[in-house]
Amino acid sequence: MADPGPLNPAGLLDTLSACGVDFVVIGALAVGVHAEVRATGDVDMMVPIGDEDNKHALRRALEQLDAVLLSYEQGGVDPSAGDPYPTVMFRTRYGKLDVLYQPDGSDTYANVKRRSLKTAINGQRVHVAAKSDLIRMKLAAGRTDDFRDVANLTASEQGMPRRVILSMALASRVDHEWACDLAMARAAYFDPSSRVQIVEHEHLQIEARRSDLTDQQIEQWAHALAERLEAAGVIADSDIQVQIRPT
């Protein structure tokens, strides 16, 4: 099919609902329900794991949407080896649709849906993830737009600027330059002026600043970052020391 035109959330959500798909809206579209609306190029939705009836319903909806699976080269996600439930992205007649089974930082689907808000988006009543669940997912994903979304979602909670110092034990025999580069690439989303260094040849230390997150949210981000660095082989485990101080 040809490239889709502008995103039409109503068309996507109407087709999914009409086909009986069980889903919860997440991502920027959901953020717009709770806070400031920002432009987005796709609809993100979370679906349950292991529900065969829902898989069939989703397949019917994708057929009606003339959906085409996007490869990594086309802007899709390169699934991790052995991941039975990878994120999948589709180009449809109504714009881009991202289907997630296990979003970063998410709880189980049952809990996310139980806490969700049922409301209208472009005239279609759907389940939208609760603010608390969106914040956890956004902090775990940790990209620039994710932190902007968290700032919008927590605007009334913002406090004084904070200095954040993270310390993690390096994996044995890891290349220090590579470890610093990888950690810096992730920390830069949190604070472009953040600093990364190796302390006493065995600890990775990250220093950053943030003024639009609560202490609890900073802790959530720090532990999500540690899990990513552990998975990449940078640190020995996800045990992390977090210091949060006023600047």
Write up this protein:
The protein has 247 residues and is an alpha+beta fold. It has helices at residues 9-18, 27-34, 52-64, 109-115, 131-141, 144-153, 176-190, 215-231, and strands spanning 24-26, 42-46, 68-69, 88-92, 95-100, 117-121, 124-128, 162-170, 195-199, 203-210, 235-246. The strands form three sheets. It has a five-stranded mixed β-sheet with strand order 1-2-5-4-3. The longest helix is centred in the last third of the chain and has 17 residues, at 215-231. It is globular and about 60 Å long. The mean pLDDT is 90.
How is the topology of this model organized?
Elements: H1 9-18, E1 24-26, H2 27-34, E2 42-46, H3 52-64, E3 68-69, E4 88-92, E5 95-100, H4 109-115, E6 117-121, E7 124-128, H5 131-141, H6 144-153, E8 162-170, H7 176-190, E9 195-199, E10 203-210, H8 215-231, E11 235-246
Parallel strand pairs: 2-5
Antiparallel strand pairs: 1-2, 3-4, 4-5, 6-7, 8-10, 8-11, 9-10
Helix pairs in contact: 5-6, 5-8
Structural class: alpha+beta
Question: Helicity range of the residues?
Answer: 25-40%
Straight-line distance between termini: 53 Å
Strand count, sense and barrel status of the largest sheet are:
5 strands, mixed
- CATH architecture of the largest domain, by name, is 2-Layer Sandwich
- Principal-axes geometry comes out as globular
Assembly state: single chain
Strand content: 25-35%
Number of domains: 2
* Overall pLDDT: 90
